[in-house]
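Example with several molecule types.
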Amino acid sequence: MDPLILSRMQFGANISFHILFPTITIALGWVLLFFKLRYNATNDSAWMRAYFTWVKVFALSFAMGVVSGVTMSFQFGTNWPGYMEKVGNIAGPLLAYEILTAFFLEAAFLGIMLFGFRRVSNRIHTLATVLVAGGTTLSAFWIIALNSWMQTPAGFEIRDGVAHAVDWWAIVFNPSMPYRLVHMLLASGLTVSFLISGLSALRYLKGDRSESMWKALRTGVFTAAVLIPIQIFAGDQHGLNTLEHQPQKIAAMEANWNTGPNVPLVLFALPDEAARENKFEIAIPDGASLVLRHSASGVVPGLNDYPGNHPPVFPVFWGFRIMVGTGILMLLVSWSAAFFLKRRHGLPKPLALLMVPMALSGWLATLAGWYTTEIGRQPWLVTGVLKTADAVGPVAGSHVALTLAIYLILYVLLLIAYLGVLVHLALKAAKDGDASPLPGVMKTAMSQPAAGE
Amino acid sequence: MTFDWPTALPLIFAGLMGLAILIYVILDGFDLGIGILFAVAEDAEQDTMIAAIGPFWDANETWLVLAVGLLLVAFPMAHGVILTALYIPVFVLLVGLILRGVAFDFRAKVPTERKHRWNRIFFLGSIIASLAQGYMLGVYVLGLDVGFGGMAFGVLVAFCLAASYAAMGAAWVIYKTEGELQKKAVRWLRTALVLTALGMAAVSLATPFASPRIFDKWFVWPSMLYLSPLPILSALLFGWLWRQTFHLPKPNDRHSLTPFLTLATIFALGFAGLAWSFYPFVVPDRLTIWQAASAPESLAIILAGTVVVLPVIIFYSFYAYRVFGGKATDLTYD
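Resulting structure tokens for the full complex:
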């Protein structure tokens, strides 16, 4: 059993599982802050109910993110020791700053945010929400900076075969970093807004017409409707940046074999790397040239310029198409839902039914986009600096295979449990509506512990 | 000896990493210990015990992330060597931490009839993680010996560490609860304390005889004299705490935090002994602190951030503990 392939599968499995949860917590923190600020401004307890429903989702997602994140931090050493040995001087400080500035901040104030509503003043509780939301975003900033540096390295030199930092500003704000960060933050916003719309639609279908359901539903739908066109624009800009810095990735995303002008936009194809051609291709003439170069005669890079040095075409090509396809579906669904909520003040049942499975559309798009960009970096771990094959550790393939199998089982079971709890929380909220007592909603400070409650 | 940064920085980071591990062992030690004690607690007691750690466990576990993070960023060479050698136990630890961490959250959110299942998973995760940590410590002490002797020693340390975590958990329950549960926790502490003392004594004796280098570091004059307070003080504290358990809980809940603080001190003493045994190696007998360290300019930039951020972390950690001070009450989200 080949430890390289198995280690890649294991890392892929772990990061795929991990990324699901930060994708939720990054934006959900800000949504919770929005609920809290609306409550502070209006004193309407429905906002606080929305807060308490979704803070539970936040807590659970955060816990899932923490435990899978701890796994990631160990995995650098267990499976990829060559990575830190080669670029540890650069990756190290970025990871250290993530832990120091973001991780502790979130972890310490999460307790106050979750359980402290009646123990601290309303203002401190709002502040804790701000700090947790800020912490998750700061965390994303550092991780994206490191990930972008691996894609488009800058600000370093190689001495004695090891990367040394020369310019920290250039390392953190490397050429693809701003695009990647914006794209990821928007992806998180969309994931959360569709999750909230979807679970609120489920409550709606169960007959829940409470104020808190409407408030959450509107927040989700309108956020999605606003974010999706911005995301399409940001994604386009990110693509142009990739074209400039990682042309072989663009060639794989478009499944374009030969460099030249008038390159068609391939809608459907089964790329065949052995024959170096596309099977069953359906394409729009000049499409790729128009999209990427804004001119039919624009030159688009082809895979044949990078023999042995370009990523596997099939997963990158299809990952990209799934992401874009999901994005278009998001545009249609969120705009129609926004239309009905704004103009008709209601939600047609078929649309509500469609919105329930769309609750997970953000995950699908994020994972597909993540595969596109990460597999698109291969065969490099750090572009031009370190090949993935040179970073793998001396661990026996059988050990990696065994642990991979157990991880997969564990992850599947946990995902089922997680989704089960999400549905359970939505149904519980639907049943209780705004009728359940909501102790502790008050604007004044409560310093005494909530004994016996 | 003249001061120069390339020599000092790795040393500073070794110290910081040691500190992070010690804080982790003390803080997550009581979380894991409470998970282990789930095996002997009733359903209603389990809710109170969870409430005693609810707001803290996340921040506590973060010290492990910091410790591994420092190993990763300050000593990248050692990080790879240690973690590839401990591949399977690290994996077991991670599975334990995953189960513990999610069970904690799931048990409060699932329908009531499923809660019991997650309580059991919480116990399992805690005991698995504790045993794995102890096993790794044992194997590491012997210079990453993964032969039969190393494994046997690892198993011994695994049980000792689980017992000492259980003692920490019991001490925390004494501090955070009252009534019947508190009395029960005193009995738990007494049992766990015996096992902890036996374990620590066994490890302290076995280590120098298993490793000639460590033997030479301890049993030479005058080091022996300077080091003698470590075992003597530990023994005295054990004896004193053992006697205390017959008088707890005291009227008006006096001294309810004392067992926890005493145990934390014993941990710190044991830890200092280990640190002395290893110095100057970060991978025993193979890589010294300086051989394994990152480039000075990278360490300098991390240190600059650490100096600013660490006091802030300590300040808000204290704040969080203060907000949730006093006896544990049922945790509610609202």
